[in-house]
TrEMBL record:
It comes from Streptomyces sp. SID12501. The chain crosses the membrane at residues 6-27, 34-58, 78-99, 266-285. Belongs to the peptidase M48 family. Residues 102-185 form the Peptidase M48 domain. This is M48 family metalloprotease.
């Protein structure tokens, strides 16, 4: 308990450190899935560890102390009380951050759905008459199919082949449900701020994943790179959109990646990430067992 309960936090730091390394060396489809899964497991494990630390205050409750004295028991002190109080405070912070992140995700999804109001349910592509060059995927939700929204200005700036690349890119976001991965790592990052670098890496990887799928659809990586470059020049400098946009996230790096061969599936690196995720869960589980054994005299 004195050591195991802290291991999820240390392993989260390691995961945050190697996340960008994995993202630059492993095929994006595999890397995004593995990092997102490991991040979710790590976030759950660290939150559970905070709860375990907070629960150690149970032995300081007056009724528990009185019962223990009557039975002649010595209550265990697995962690200092200041650590337990700090854990309670951090749990409140985690709850607040999760609520904020969940609300932001909900409002974003609702705003995107409103853009599609009045459109036929069987229409995938929506062309908006706007002077702002934009293109992004609107994920599927209850009662609403996945859509691709592109402005007339963006379409007008691209050639026929480049339009194929753009639509294939956005369609890949919908087909592979990238919004779910992004939401998962966003909530994981809210629960555990140490995982912030992993959240950013996964957001980049889903764009790289969609780039690779678009290149496969048109059968030419160079064409995909040119389409991305043309779209980026049309958009200019702006912040990433709330949706999954064609020109979001490190366009220069994405263009460079399309000009080289596809990345391999380096299973040793993938195994390392999976091991970190498993170890965080094991550390939290082992700490749970230790705490239950320490509190057994009080609980029985």
């Amino acid at each position: 308990m004195r050591v195991d309960v802290y291991t999820p936090f240390l392993l989260s730091l390691l995961l945050a450190g190697i996340g960008p390394l994995i993202g630059g060396r492993v095929a994006p489809a595999l890397a995004a899935r593995v990092l997102a899964g490991a991040a979710v497991v790590s976030a759950v494990a660290t939150t559970w560890s905070l709860l375990l630390l907070a629960v150690t205050l149970l032995d300081a409750a007056p009724p528990v102390v009185a019962d223990a004295r009557e039975d002649g028991l010595r209550l265990p002190e697995p962690v200092p009380e200041v650590v337990a109080f700090a854990a309670w405070a951090l749990l409140l912070v985690v709850a607040h951050r999760l609520c904020r992140a969940a609300r932001a995700e909900y409002l974003t999804r609702r705003a995107l759905r409103l853009l599609c109001e009045g459109q036929p349910s069987d229409t995938e592509l929506i062309v908006a008459d706007s002077s702002a060059p934009m293109a992004f995927a609107i994920p599927k939700s209850a009662g609403s199919p996945g859509r691709i929204l592109v402005t007339s200005t963006m379409l007008g700036a691209l050639s026929t082949e480049e339009r194929r690349v753009l639509l294939a890119h956005e369609r890949a976001h919908l087909t592979h449900r990238h919004a779910r991965l992004c939401t998962a790592v966003t909530l994981a990052g809210a629960a555990n701020p140490l995982l912030g670098p992993v959240r950013e890496t996964v957001a980049f990887l889903v764009e790289r994943w969609a780039d690779e799928r678009a290149a496969a659809v048109v059968g030419d990586r160079a064409s995909a790179a040119r389409a991305l470059a043309r779209a980026a020049l049309t958009v200019g400098c702006r912040e990433p959109s709330d949706g999954l946009g064609f020109t979001d996230r490190a366009v220069t790096r994405r263009i460079a990646a399309l000009q080289t061969d596809p990345l391999p599936r380096l299973w040793p690196l993938v195994a390392t990430v999976l091991s970190l995720g498993a170890l965080t869960a094991f550390g939290a589980a082992d700490a749970t067992g230790d705490l239950l054994r320490l509190l057994e005299p009080v609980l029985t």
